[in-house]
Amino acid sequence: MGFGNVGRAFLRLLISKETELRRRYDVRWRLTGVATRRSGWLADPDGLNPLAILSGHWPAQHPQSPPRNVREWLERARADVVFEASSLNMQTGQPAIDHIKTAFEFGAHAITANKGPIVHAFAELTALAREKDRRFLYEATVMDGVPIFSMFPLGLPATDIRGFSGVLNSTTNVVLTEIEKGRSFDDAVRRAQAMGIAETDPAADLDGWDAAVKIVVMTIVLLGVPMRLEQVQRTGIRELSEEKIRSVRAAGMRYKLVCRAERRGDGVECCVRPELLLASDPLANLEGSSSAVRFDMDVFGLSLIEHNPGIEATGYGLLADFLRAVHP
């Protein structure tokens, strides 16, 4: 569902690792449906040619009328697993929420790279997955393929997460770094766009919305506390002057857009804002598209760093969840 950069990267990984999936995990797959705004609802339970689709050669629809909506598409595709990689709707999480609900109704596991369903319907979707005995997985929503969510509770059982902090937005990281090098703010944004990191409209990144959505997702899933986007104290990087960014860098410090969440009684206090960090701070040393998160737990702290990921890293998050869903 959705066949943009993430969907294409995921399909390339499936193809490249097909032999490994069969030999190591006894997992075989076929592509039975692709849905995009441009090409509509394409389904064939006997299997589509993934290489042809990656090359832009879409097969003609069967003589019968093509699917007109997600229900008809899933009924035609007979999917065991549905991957939801449509565009994020921060306000409502739709239509991704309805896509995932329908997947469960048709007996499929649902795997998403879309943060909207977590922000707006996590409890409902988790309960529905449990009722249908299906998996609802979302590793690719934050830090691509880094095992943020699958690490808890299996990898770190009986730990109490008291809070977390990190740099979770690649665009602002690139923009701040480019300004430090002497580029203007606008040129730095264009550089991030040329790298394929920033969107055509980078406002969600620059104004802190992308980081805020990610901190809400992590708070809901990992801290178990319902959190709304408007509850996050949010400040972007537009108010930082180019001169200030460069002057602190010359003094051995750096600005980064930092996310923080900390338990306060029964609730959680969340914020996203530019912070001035000493060079000794691990977050200050992040370059390019790298991101990092530190978890503060009752027994120890743990930091994870993702070094300059590309779109393949997000595709890997979907692949890892695929194996978690279908491999016992």
Uncertain segments are: none
CATH class of the largest domain: Alpha Beta
**CATH fold-level name of the largest domain:** Rossmann fold
Note the total helix count. 12
- Beta-strand percent range: 15-25%
Helix content: 25-40%
H/E series, N to C? HHEEHHEHEHEEHHHHEHEEEEH
Q: What structural class do helix, strand and pairing data support?
A: alpha/beta
Write the topology of this structure.
Elements: H1 5-16, H2 18-25, E1 33-36, E2 40-43, H3 50-54, H4 70-77, E3 81-84, H5 96-105, E4 109-112, H6 116-132, E5 136-137, E6 161-167, H7 170-180, H8 185-194, H9 203-206, H10 209-222, E7 233-234, H11 242-250, E8 253-264, E9 267-278, E10 291-297, E11 301-306, H12 311-326
Parallel strand pairs: 3-4, 4-5, 7-9
Antiparallel strand pairs: 1-2, 6-8, 6-10, 8-9, 10-11
Summarize this structure briefly:
The protein has twelve helices and eleven strands.
Overview of the molecule:
The model has no long low-confidence stretch (mean pLDDT 94). The relative contact order is 0.14. The chain is globular and about 65 Å long. It has twelve helices and eleven strands. It is α/β, with parallel strands linked by helices and 328 residues long. Helices cover 38% and strands 20% of the residues. A six-stranded mixed beta sheet has the order 7-9-8-6-10-11. It folds into two domains: 157 residues, Rossmann fold (3-Layer(aba) Sandwich); 146 residues, Dihydrodipicolinate Reductase, domain 2, CATH 3.30.360. α1 crosses α12, α5 packs parallel to α6 and α7 packs across α8.
